[in-house]
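Q: Start with the shorter request: fold the first protein.
A: Done. Sequence, then structure:
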Amino acid sequence: MKVRTYIALLSVGSLLGASLLIGLGWWGFASLSSATRELEKETQRTGELSVEYKDVEAFLSTTRSIMVSMEVYPENYEGLFGVTRDELREAEIQLNVIASKYGQNYSEKELKHLVEDLAEVKGAVLKLEEFAQQLGKLKDNQKPPADFWVKRNKAKSQYEEIRDKLKQSVNNLEILSEQFRQKSEQEVLTKWKDLKSREETNGFFLLLGVLLYLGLISFLGFSTYRSFASPIRRLEMAAVDSIDHNKPFLLAESGPYEIRSLTRRLQGLIIGLEETVERRTAELKERTIQLQKEIRQRMELETQLVHAQKMEAVGQLASGIAHEINSPSQ
C-alpha cells in the first residue's frame, strides 16, 4: 500500500468520524427542537384550556348562584326574580361563549342539553315570578283563586324537576372540563418527561459519538505511527548501526510501498558499499603484499650489488698487489 493510500484512508476516516459527530449533533438538535415545539404547543393549549376552564367555572358559578338564590330566598323576597333574570341572561351569554369557542371539546348533545335545560329553568322561573306577582297584587285579607296554590305548587315542582336536570348537566360539564384540564396537565407533564428523556438520550449518544470519534482518531494515530513513524525510526536505527557501528544491515521491509522501496534501496546501497570496501581492501592488501615483495627483492639486489662492488674492490686490490709483487719498483 502506498503513502497516498494511507493518507486517503486517514482522511476518509477522519471525515467519517467528523460526519458522524455532526450527524449525531444534528439529530439531537432536531429531536430536542421537535420535543420543545411539542411542549410549547401543549403548554399553549394548556393555557387555552385554562382560559376555557375559567369560562366554564364562571358559567357553573352563575348557574349554581341561580339555583341557590331560588332555594335560599323566599319567592316574595324583593328583587329575587330580577336578580335571577339577570343571572339567567349572563348564564346564556356564558354558555354561548363556551359553545362558540370550545364546542369542539364537548359533545353537541351535552351542549344541547345545557341550552334546553337552561331555557326550561328560565321558563319555570318566569312562571314562578308570575305567581309571585299575583300574590303581590292581592290586597289585605284578599285570598288568591281556589286553584292558585295547586298551580303554583305544580310550577314549583316543575321548576325543581328542571333544576335537577340542569344541575346534572352542569355537573357533567364540570366533570368534562376537569377531565380536559387534568388531561392537558398530564400531556404537558408527559411532553416534559419526553423532552428530558430525549435530552438524556441525545446526551448519551453524543457522548458515545465523541468516544467513538476519539477512539477512531486514536486508532488512526496509532496506525499512522505504526505505518510511517515506526518503520522510518527502525530504518534510521538500522542505518546508524550499519554505518557508524559496522553492523550488518538486517531490516525486514515494512510500512508503505515508498518506505519498503527506500529500505530495499538503502540496503542495496549499503551492501554494495560494503562489497566495494571489501574488494578495495583486498586489492589494497594484495598491492601491499606485492610492494613488500618488491621491496624485499630490491633490498636483496642492493645487497648483492654491494657484495659485488666489494668483491670488485677486493679483486682490484689483489690485482694491484700482484702487479707490485711481479714488478717490483726500481
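Q: Next, the second protein, separately.
A: Sequence, then structure:
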Amino acid sequence: IDEAFLGLHGFTKADLGDYGQKIRATVKQWTGIPVSVGIAKTKTLAKLAAHEAKRYPDLNGVLNFDTLADPDAVLASLDVGEVWGIGRNLKANLNGMGITNVLQLKQANETVIKKKFGVLGLRTVLELRGTPCFPMEPVATPVTMRIVSRSFGHLVTELSDIKEAVATYTTRCAEKLRADGLLAGHFTVTMRTSYYRPENQYGAARSVEIDPPTNDTAVLIHEAMRLAEAAFTPGYEYLKAKVIATDLSPVGEVQGSLFAAPVDTEKREKLMAAMDNLNRRLSPDAVKFGALGLKPTWAMRSEYFSQRYTTHWGEVPTVKVWQKTSAQSTRQSYETVL
C-alpha cells in the first residue's frame, strides 16, 4: 500500500496534529516503516501536506495544512507537477499557459481550466481552494476484469510451450477469481512477438463466451487451450502471452443455463477449495493440472529476485559476530530477524 486516506470529520475535540503523530508512531512501531501524514480539507491538499511533511525534519513527519499561517506561500513554493494527478504531459501544458506553481493553478480561471483539461482539471483546482471534489471510497471499486500476463524467459516458437504458459496463467487467473468470489463469463487469450524486433511481427487474440460463468480452473483451462491453438501461428518467435477474464459476476448471483450439461457444482467447488488450500499450505502448484507441465522451459527468468527478508524463513538474514573467549577468538553465526 503506497497511501491511504482517512476521514477525520468526527474528530471534533482531538488535536489533529497530535492524532497524526499517533498514527505515524503506531505505523512505525508495528511495521518499522516511517510514514508522513498530511491533514487538510481535501484529498489534494492532504497529499501536498504529506509531501511537505517529508521535506522538513522539524515537522516530524506530520503537517496539518489548516494550521499554516500563510498556506498560499507554501503553495507558491511548490512546483505544479507535485499536485496529485498532474503528470508530465499535463504539467507541460500548464507550463505553456504560464502556470508553473501550485498557487497559480489554484488561482487559475475555472472556465479556461475546464475547457482545456475537462471536469477532472476543474475538480483539482477546486480541491486546491478547499472544496472537496474527490469523495472518500469506503467500499472498494468492483473488479471488472482479471488479467494475468508474463513475458517468457526466452523467445518461444512451439505451441506446446505456449499452451503450458497459457494454462499456468489461466490457473493463476482462476485462483484470483475464487479469492474475489467472482465468476468469469468471457475469457480471452492473447500472444505476441517482441515489439523491439521490427521483422516478423505478429500478435493475436481469441475470445469465448462462457455459459454458465465459472471460476473452475479445469473449465477455464479447457477453453484457454482451444483459444491458444486458434491464436497460434507457426513461424513466429513469441515473447509474451496473456489471459483476460471479463464479464465478471459474483458467485451466487448467476442464473443457470437451460441448455448446458448438468454439473455437480457443489463437488467442483469443494475440489477447487481443496486445491487452493493445499497450494496455500504447501507451495504454489503443489497440486496442479497436467496442462501446466512439469519442468517449464519458457518461464520468466528470476535468478535475481530480492531476498524475502521479512516473509520467508529460509531467507532471514544471518548476522555473523565474533565472541572472545579467554583462550582465543572464535567466530560464531547466529540467525536472527533484524
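Q: Describe the second briefly.
A: Residues 174 and 215 are 5 Å apart (CA to CA). The chain has two domains: 16-128, 146-292.
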